[in-house]
Amino acid sequence: MNLSGWKYEGRIISDNLQHQIMEIIKILNAPEKVQNRTWGGSLQKFIGNQIGISDGQVRTIKRMMEEFDILKPGALNRRTVPDKSNIYSENGEVLIRLFESEELLKQKPSKDSYEQIERIKEIYKLFYLKILVKYTIRDKDGNEFHPAVILLKALKKYEYLTYWEWYLLNTIITSDNNPEEEQEFDKYITDIRNGALKASDLKITENVLSHSYILGNFAYVGLIKVEGKKENMKITINEKNKHIIDEILREWGSDDE
Fold first, then answer.
1. Smallest Cα–Cα separation from 150: which of 124, 168, 127?
2. Which of 69, 144, 153, 218 supports an S-S bond with 254, CB 3.0-4.6 Å?
3. Order of all β-strands in the sheet with 224-227
4. Domain 136-251 listed as CATH 3.40.140
5. What are the residue boundaries of the structural domains of the chain, listed by start?
């Protein structure tokens, strides 16, 4: 049986990505660095050289900043020079103020400033959690679905998912709250757990790193825990945030209780 992962074209959310976003914002907010460069001209390459990544990676991060509601979509116009007064969303402006507070705290290291920085990092994670719950992926027919809601619903029902079960989920369920897809997935879960379906019968043929990218993001914001790698992987709900997860499932009409 051929399996395919959900298609994700962004980056794994991490402290490193957070740092790169902050560095991009610093440059965009500094006219003396932008120097009348346009986004479609030399600005992408300049930013990449400044922070040590390729201009292609800069474009990927820029797209993520739009998807995560930091930048207004299309605000970084290819033909215009960026103006910090009109390129950020309201959420982006809030995030920038948090960035600035974190930078000031780092300049005066102390136990108190360290604790405040840790609290700011938790706010970052809540910001990304809110975005990831609403994040959608399109199936091959162009229909949108919410991977976070689908995964959390499955974990609540089955307690855990393995590496192969994750890719079965990706292959079979590509729409929100679809009883027919959920029944089909239930059949395969039953078969793989009682030994009727074996790992040797399964082959991942598309989007073979969805477990790394998508699960990595959900784990970063505290929705799930991922133990082990590949065939030894076990995915579970992060019990620390169970109250948030229950609220998410209620809000999205996916709470079976």
1. 168
2. 153
3. 161-162, 234-237, 224-227
4. no
5. 15-133, 136-251
Tens place of pLDDT per residue across the chain (257 aa) = 999 899 887 788 888 998 999 999 999 999 999 999 999 889 999 999 999 999 999 999 999 999 889 999 999 987 889 999 999 999 999 999 998 899 899 998 899 999 999 999 899 989 999 889 998 998 888 889 999 999 999 999 999 999 999 999 999 999 998 999 999 999 999 999 999 999 999 998 888 888 888 999 999 999 999 999 988 999 999 999 999 999 999 987 655 54
